[in-house]
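Annex B. Sample input.
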Amino acid sequence: MIEPRDIRLKRLRMRSMRRGIKEMDMILIRYSQARLDALPEAELDVYESLLSENDQDLYQWVSGQAAPPGRFSALIGDIRDTIGNAE
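Annex B, continued. Sample output.
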């Protein structure tokens, strides 16, 4: 069965704020509140895949300490841009 979009968005927001480290909670919940509604399904798929990654890796990618894998490069750039503009 296909999950309705509104339910998927709620689930992804919940996963965004229930991370392993507080820094990623704060970054991803802000991003999810600002951008998830506008993302097309294909980009939501990438975001959902990103949420399965290790928080330490995610933090390094978002903070620019390490380069993200190619499949996440555009999304990590969008997260940086969105969070940077919100500050």
